[in-house]
Amino acid sequence: MAYNSNALSALALQKFKTNFWGVFSLVVIICIGLIAVFAYVIAPDNSQNANQMHLAIHSKAPGFKVDMLSIPSNLESDQGLFNKLFFGKKVVANSVPVSAHHIKNDTLFYTEYASDGLKGIQKSLAIPATGEQPFVAKQTFLFGTDKYGRDLLSRVLVGARISFFIGFVAVLISLFIGVVLGSLSGYFGGKTDAVIMWLINVTWSIPTLLLVIAITLALGKGFWQVFIAVGLTMWVEVARVVRGQIKGVKNMQYVTAAKALGYGDVRIIIRHVLPNIMAPVIVICAANFAAAILIESGLSFLGIGAQPPMASWGAMIKDHYNYIILGKPYLALIPGLCIMVLVMAFMLMGNALRDALEVKV
């Protein structure tokens, strides 16, 4: 039995490897996952939530360059290295965009940047004899800046965390609830099946987005509340598939043999039934991952998802969708393309898994 199982897994893996779009999508998903985990290491703005604002340079086009004056902060931070790498810096140097600067007699004179041909305010800064010195360096905003003057590239990189991790959390929650309820319904049947199917049908009849909004409002606005709300609305399809698969295999010989050997129902379900029906469940999980990303983006667009200043692709579209008709469509298109690429990657990988797992010997 173990040999056949291993042989089927090897055949499925070999078939998946021959699917170019499946492998390509998996590589894209892994790359985005690594970006999400190490966003603050990669992002030019490594402050928490990439939230450094410079209103003087708001809504600048991709590739915009400006001299940035970095003024050391006098505040002390007790953050550890791990915390800085994965959650961003709490205390960062103050940065000011400048159009001109020069040093005279231990004093830095600079002119703040002003757009639209205006002249910025001239200021001076005494250079301390000891400690960290202020310095000026040219900074390039590869994706431009948003309407608050924040680095759009950094916001996109940090925003990948929410879209990527909400898929994992939502799929795990939906998988746990769906497998448990679907197993009970399909294996025991009778009144248990009737009650669970009634619950499934009631949940199925409520529009997904409306149900997510209701759960989100009940739990409150926030990061983890959205994760839980999305997960609690995606278990129905998993439960229906598991129920149908178990009904199809519960009378097979290996289940009857397990019952004859005196094994308990829980052991039979976990050790013998579920491993033989997980192929379609895996495919559904890939589709649910994509659906969770879209639902979260919709919630953030409506303002009940991740709350500011937290970076979210859906919230970025909400903040800048009106710029599409103002000649700066990239502010909304860039996060929109990121959502599209990630969702498409999961859908293509789901299709590849569906083809690969249909192995017959």
UniProtKB/TrEMBL annotation:
Keywords carried by this UniProt record: Cell membrane, Membrane, Transmembrane, Transmembrane helix, Transport
Stretches assigned to the ABC transmembrane type-1 domain: 160-350
Keyword Transmembrane in record: yes
GO biological process assignments: transmembrane transport
CDD domains tied to this protein: TM_PBP2 (cd06261)
Membrane topology (UniProt): Multi-pass membrane protein
Record InterPro entries: BP-dependent_transpt_permease, MetI-like, MetI-like_sf, OppC_N
Major location (coarse): membrane
Annotated family: Belongs to the binding-protein-dependent transport system permease family.
Protein name (record): Peptide transporter
Native source species: Mangrovimonas yunxiaonensis
